Amino acid sequence: MDVTATPAAGTAPAELVKGLRLLDATTIVMGSMIGSGIFIVAAEGAREVASPTLFMLTWVISGLMTVVAAITYGELAAMMPRAGGQYVYLREAFGPLSGFLYGWTLFLVIQTGTLAAVAVAFGKFLGVFVPWVSAQNLLLNFGQLNVAGHSIALTLSSQQLIGILAIFLLSTANITGLRTGAWVQNIFTVLKVGALLGLVGLGLWWAGSGHAMPAPPPAASAETHWGWATLTVLSVAMVGPLFSSDAWNNVTFTGAEVINAKRNLPLALLFGTVGVCSLYLACNWAYVRILPFFGSPQGAGPLERGIQYAVEDRVGTAAMQVVLGNPGAWVMAAAIMVSTFGCLNGMILAGARVYYAMAKDGLFFRKVARINPKYHTPAVSLMVQAVWASLLTLSGTYNELLDYVIFAVVLFYILTIAAVFHLRRTRPDAARPYRAWGYPVLPALYIAFAFFVEWALLFHKTQRSLAGLGIVALGIPVFYFWRRRSEGFAGR
């Protein structure tokens, strides 16, 4: 029986209902995290650090940061298990403006931008099986759009079209019931975790079957010299790992729909992030064991191109080709399609709850707060999210969207973890069913290192970081517009 289909007797307007168990919440964490990034971003990271040691360290540090943030968020999730999650935490800690700026940026860039990037990646790997689906197969060309001196080509390729269709298909499925979305998430998360475990297993087999670990060239075998410059390079190179590990907080958006949320939300955050970050580290170890780290962009095959210059940055595909031959590319493409499809579903399900919460507060279009009376899902919010994410697929490449997103993401992570400190001081007597492990040391260390990552991004990827910061700042006048608009409706 779908618990979302039958409201309790005596309820008036339709509301969200509790239907997510611990397993469902955990698969939302894991499924939202695992997309296409783990199969792609290793190449750019390898080019930036130019050291296998630093390369692996980026994944270790990003994993630790993610888990520390998640166990800290657990305290807020248990305190305030409401629809909107992080939006609510910031609103309650620092006021409605801070909550709105998060929700505004989430809608404009963070959630929808990531949806666009993952949807395009889904189309990219479908192209392995269906050559018609390609970034080069342009169906429409809308010309150039100039934004802050940066020219963006607005096109519709067959690859982008497939991404848009996937977004709308999953958004429609999530309208038909919470359990529908949860079942899709559970199935695809199990499949994608199985695919990652298979990749790690192949790496173990390859390493243990007499194949020598690829040797670095003489110039690359020198000892890594630690210092400020190395730490800066490491921080910039963490964009890829952090992006691949992002979206774990999406489960907090569904707080009002999680059964026994005060217990299950912190557990889901812990189990999900530890599981995925461990898998990511193991997968990158497998890459380093199977492929040479260094390579040439002119290389004829995966061994000559190495991790650094894998064709179209498809490191996972290159590793599978070395182990399984040409069929390996097909196997990996299928695995990535499963992974990106499940990631899209989890983010679509969760993200719509934030805009719904904002609309309930009078800070977004009023119709977005409407709940479908039959299925008890935020149907309007799901469709608004789908439309904007689809438009974003027309406006940039995977790496461009990644760079815009990550600066704003880390900024709001810092603010939300700071909210734990603030609420401990201002609401010492509030019920806290779960208290963050390692408080105050671990949250403080996260904030300190995250600030350094922001500094590194600001100075080394200035234009895109400032663009992300500008999007956040643009929300300030929008907030006051919405608040006046809301007050005007209330006065009628």
How would you summarize what this structure contains?
With 492 residues, the chain is mostly helical. It is built from 19 helices and two strands. A two-stranded antiparallel sheet has the order 1-2.
Question: Can you give a write-up of this model?
Answer:
- This protein has 492 residues and is mainly alpha-helical.
- It has a single domain (21-482), classed as Amino acid/polyamine transporter I (Up-down Bundle).
- Helices cover 67% and strands 4% of the residues.
- It contains 19 helices and 2 strands.
- The protein has helices at residues 22-33, 37-40, 42-49, 52-79, 86-94, 96-126, 158-175, 178-208, 228-237, 239-244, 250-253, 261-290, 302-305, 315-324, 327-360, 379-392, 398-426, 441-460, 462-490, and strands spanning 138-147, 150-157.
- A two-stranded antiparallel sheet has the order 1-2.
- Strand 1 (138-147) and strand 2 (150-157) form a beta hairpin.
- It is globular and about 65 Å long.
- The two termini are 42 Å apart.
- The relative contact order is 0.20.
Which regions are unreliable across 5 or more consecutive residues at pLDDT < 50? 1-11, 218-223
List the secondary-structure elements in sequence, H or E.
HHHHHHEEHHHHHHHHHHHHH
**Helix content percent band:** 55-70%
CATH hierarchy, class: Mainly Alpha
How many helix segments?
19
CATH homologous superfamily, by name?
A: Amino acid/polyamine transporter I
Strand % is: under 5%
Rounded mean pLDDT is 87
| CATH topology group | Amino acid/polyamine transporter I
Structural class: mainly alpha
Assembly of the depicted chains:
single chain
CATH architecture: Up-down Bundle
| Main sheet specs | 2 strands, antiparallel
Count of individual beta strands: 2
Ends distance: 42 Å
Identify the strand order in the major beta sheet.
1-2
How many structural domains can be distinguished in the coordinates?
1
Overall 3D form:
globular
